[in-house]
Amino acid sequence: MTSPGRQVAGFDSATAMLRVLARFLDGRDAPLLGILPGALEAPMSVLLGAANRLPRRITERAFAASGWAEAVAPGRTGEVRSDALAEWIVSHYPRRRYPAAFIGSADGAMIHLAAAVGAPWLPQTVLIPVRRRGGHPDDPAACLRASRRAGQDLADAGPDLVLHHMHDPNQDRLMIAGMSYFRVKFRRLPAAYREFLRECLAPDATLVVSDCGLRWPTTRAGERHLFQHGAFGGIGAAEFHEGGDRVAGFLARDGSPFRAWRAPPPDGESPEAEWGFDPALLDDLGEFRTHRLSFSEPQALSAAVADLYRDWYRRRGVPDTRLFASCFLLMEPWWTLRTGSVPYWLAFNTDPANRRLLEYLDGAAPYDEIRLTLFSNGVRALGQAPIPAWRDVLARARTLGSFTGVDARAYPRDFASFVRMHRDLAAARPLYPMPDPMDLGFALDFLARHPST
Q1: How far apart are CA 447 and CA 364, in angstroms?
Q2: CA dist., res. 198 & res. 219, Å (int)
Q3: pLDDT by residue (tens digit) across 374-427?
Q4: What's the rounded Cα separation, in Å, for the pair 339 and 447?
Q5: In the chain, N or C terminus with fewer CB closer than 10 Å?
Q6: Calpha distance 331→23 (Å, rounded)
């Protein structure tokens, strides 16, 4: 039987957010995103920095191989057990009384909110990557056929899970060349989650439901088994399904034999695989005092949480003029607070994410310092914001605008960024004492009154 720690992807957004928040609550920072010992940060920086200078095709194969090495064999998906997954998740957190807890959708701004109030987060969705033989990434229908049996085995083994097979040949095309992204959502509250909440929530504590309302066209592939072509990012669902000149040009530049994606036609709409919240889980939360924190899409909370931190800093006598814009899974709550940085979370490295950050800066009081990190996914994807667009963000700083851990020459194939981000942010000065937790009621009231939410 494969252990849950070997089934769940270490490179996924939810897993990374779980690790960095758990380490924060344990009084620790997260070098190497908590994946490897911090002592390896320096040698890994050198090694991956050298890899950035290798020919493109070599770095792409290495990037894909790193993910494939984590993937589950297709014949073992029937071993996935929801209770074991939940036990593995709660094992990350220190066992003590918490003033609150979060459950539901992954979201970077929500993680910064949870860190501020000193609360754990229990994800509804985790990624189980599964190796696949056959199916070109630009032929989603063939990839579904090649992995349908493995997907149904997983769904049959977990009656309290819904499987969302997510296939994004734009942003994830390197990874999905040899694997399938099986994202599973808890429809019921797992026993390990219930036990953790009963044991660790303080009396009268609130369970905050992170409820991202993002939905996406899907195709039903079986009982509790959905297929999602495309994903939230730089282009919308219509372009994934309808194609066009831009898609054809992208595929031609990448050397694909296709000029449009051959996806199965959608027959419905579902919570988006990575970010969307499945409301079926709400039926199992009745014994807890809950607050539903609803938002339309992943980056919708970012401006409000940034302004919440600014208000908090001013109340504490800490300058509120240093911004740190984190990206996707590249997050570091510990050093964000120690450096007195205002967190603004970017859902990805895309044009829409870039525009939303610039819109926030247009309406915010000026920042003296702006630091920015970028996730590199190895592909010059459609809708990806180029380096000049990110330099426009840095130019808004009054005194210092700098990339944090980013090799602008290598982006979006800068595979050392996840190592260097922590090091560069930790080097910022001055430092400030770690604050006492923020009051949850104050935070939720602030968010409710914010014009962006």
Answers
A1: 16
A2: 37
A3: 999 999 999 999 999 999 999 999 999 999 999 999 999 998 998 999 999 999
A4: 23
A5: N
A6: 12
